[in-house]
């Protein structure tokens, strides 16, 4: 790859250097903050051979490159007036607008607590199924205990949100948790629900219920972050330990009870009433419009604005109409991608379309949306139309979600367990097939097959064996909990769940990339295979901790040469998965990439992949 040419092309197509506010890179993507995203020529960017796809998250313009992204990034810096100072996230650029800042806060607060909510929601779904089929009675002790497990995260939601919000706002998360615990204290809850006139040092307190609420605690912790920082600034160092948390609690909790809490509770209730009123009085039109446009909403990042409303609807009313619209949007993307699989004559793109359709059904739509449907345009429109068709059915039948789950794909259908469960399942099927049929009938301009441009038989890539760089259990890429790998966006390969903390060279070749975070290494074999070994999922966030690299870029290596060692226990303790994708990033060079083993254990240097 000519990195200089690629970098110049990318800079030109994002609107020129003058349109770049900042640029950084992660494992696979260039992440641009542009002054005007509309100036970027998305179509031409996607047509560049080096570009695997485009994604816009919030205001960030992301260009998916793959394992060559560090070199492309270096070339961009070298071939422009951008400096490393400007290449830091939001350094030297304009401030976010208010709307973007709000979305960023909502995303940052709710995303960390989703696993707890998803787990609790799944348990509530299991309880509902067990009671429905008579496997358990609602009066049994087992039901009581399981209900406590399922309801706990929702009842004490303000405490979870307090901790997450404090981390986002930069205040003490444990003081924030204490604020949440105070407004949920049983004695205070009983007092607020007694119907008596309540006051604090002469100031009246409006009765409100704070269990399972969202907006009051977010406002309270936002205020607490300023109060805590101000008290910390004026308190002598020797007294900070005692005075800062004490005064913060004494100020924020009463302020919350007197003003912020009631206002937040009222705002949340009216917001839910307004949203639910639209669905209950104009359900057909509202659901058609929302389901048909939700993929567009997700692309802009505006879906984060709906998260507090969804939580509030479920916890206060027991049902929500927004989650079903998100389900339909995902099913539409899956159906449209499946139609591409049925109609495309490009074998490689056909395979990609089927894979991304399946991942979209599982709730991961990025590969289908950006890698297939938007790339071909008409299938993306078909996905929107298919979702709208499903929305019409949901609107007529009044489908709602009754449990908050962490997945808006088939694994998360327990969210629909309730009076409209059957209609919800029918709507999912309708949406998938409607999008498939519409996309198939509308057609699309197929991706040209590379068969005509393939090298002559005598020039084809010779068969090559890729040896295992790790000792462990071989797994399919589809089992990797990352859409970039499981969707084969970067290329084909396999994954290994390691049992020893050493990765060795799988080929004779040259080290082409050693990531600064030490968690990934790129190698080009002597026969031309470009391989990336990515140790763990999201381990880039460790910033090199627990990893030791034993090679450098340009080193010649042989099979079995030690590349990197890593502390497995420390990485697991930090909360990261160790499953390691081994990807052939120049997959298009080969007619076949087949794993030697699929579900068995493998030793170091044992044959892993056959390239031909």
UniProtKB/TrEMBL annotation:
Q: Residues in domain PTS EIIA type-1?
A: 482-586
Its GO CC terms are: plasma membrane
Is-annotated flag, keyword Transmembrane helix?
yes
Transmembrane segment boundaries: 113-133, 145-166, 172-193, 205-227, 247-271, 283-306, 321-342, 380-404, 416-442
Which Gene3D superfamilies does this chain map to?
A: Glucose Permease (Domain IIA), Glucose permease domain IIB
Give the main location: membrane
* Keyword Manganese tagged: no
Q: Which CDD domains match?
A: PTS_IIA_glc, PTS_IIB_glc
Q: Where is the active site?
A: 26
Q: Which PROSITE patterns match?
A: PTS_EIIA_TYPE_1, PTS_EIIA_TYPE_1_HIS, PTS_EIIB_TYPE_1, PTS_EIIB_TYPE_1_CYS, PTS_EIIC_TYPE_1
Q: Where is the PTS EIIC type-1 domain?
A: 104-458
Q: GO annotations under biological process?
A: phosphoenolpyruvate-dependent sugar phosphotransferase system; trehalose transport
Q: Which UniProt keywords apply?
A: Cell membrane, Kinase, Membrane, Phosphotransferase system, Sugar transport, Transferase, Transmembrane, Transmembrane helix, Transport
Q: Extract one GO molecular function annotation from the record.
A: protein-N(PI)-phosphohistidine-sugar phosphotransferase activity
Matching entries from SUPFAM superfamilies are given as: Duplicated hybrid motif, Glucose permease domain IIB
Q: What is this protein called?
A: Trigger enzyme beta-glucoside-specific phosphotransferase system EIIBCA component
Q: What organism is listed for this UniProt entry?
A: Bacillus sonorensis L12
